[in-house]
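Late entry, evening session. Most of the bench is empty. Finally got around to the prediction I had been postponing all week. Sequence below, unchanged from the version circulated by S.P.
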Amino acid sequence: MCPPGWVGEWLVDAGAALDVRRPHAGGDLPDDLADHDAFVVLGGSMGASDDADFAWLTRVKHLIRRAAATDVPTLGICLGHQLSAVALGGRVERNPRGQQVGVLDVGWTVDADTDPLLGPIAVTRSARPSRAVQWNNDLVIETPPGTVVLAHTPHDEVQAARFAPTVWGVQWHPEAGEDVVRVWAEQDRDDAAERGVDLEGYVAAVGAARDELRTTWTPLAGLLLGLAGARTTRAAP
């Protein structure tokens, strides 16, 4: 599973107290999100529909649906993005073009400019195009009803979406710097060699883009907490 990485760092810096759960390692999950102001679902190597092999995926999808029903601001990252789509009625499948690996461009849509979470980042594209770390085999190929697609690849594959009024997903990894990607590279080295992927070059590219990536995605934490704070204010008597 992916660690909170930079996103965890940025959330703490923005004033959040993290409650990190690791169900893949036997950790428990809450029954609901009543005691939480926001919800972040991280990545992993399993598929979004692999519940038979990873029973905790069912619990995570239940929590995503509860978050949508109770307006808890939720961000899914990579697998979390895919789980959010499936939980709310979408479909995920293997990318027929193969694995996406690299520091790739984010193809913002016009709808992204006014999005409550990603809009302030998307509107900077005229001055500084957004790039992000990608490492995924699967894609959201059918979005839930009411989804607003916020970014897509040149092949019109979903890169980011608002799946429900307070549930977002991004296919990329804003949390991952070269230290995280280096671990993935070691774990995937044999398969990557068969595919002809230059993992050392990829790790080096992530390292070279470090300052750019952090500048682009650091605001994400504050924006998520801002939405959480607004929800808390609305709920207060």
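Two things to note before I forget:
The mean pLDDT is 92.
The two ends are 39 Å apart (CA to CA).
Will write this up properly tomorrow.
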